[in-house]
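Researcher: Re-running this chain for the archive, since the previous output was lost when a drive failed. Same request as before.
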Amino acid sequence: MSSFQSKTSATIDNAKALFGKKVDALVKQKEKVTELIAGVGSKISRVGENPRVKKLIEPVSVFIRMIKAHFSGAHKMTNSTLGLVLLALVYFVSPIDIIPDFLGFFGFADDLSVVLAIYAKVKDEIEDFLDWERTQD
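Model: Regenerated structure tokens:
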């Protein structure tokens, strides 16, 4: 296993240790997922202008679109991908994680690492989703 893959797996494992049970419950509750997405939108509006955080916004935006398509039935994800995508968003929106957000950029750096690790892990499904999305216009 490459160093990048092992770091990615370790990052995801740490996030699962913090929020795995919450995500397991969330998968089955569409209204709670809607609340999560609203919370993500609120956080993005607060921090989205920070140039260091902008790199994080595009993957988060893709995750939100994937979740909306999944719950509407338009484009389903596998359960494992859904769980990982929700984990990324829960981690992103939570003020309490490995490095708390009140520490400024460093607080967002761990959010970024989790989001990008999950993005890399589910890249094939993301590419399938983006291909599907392009055909919908």
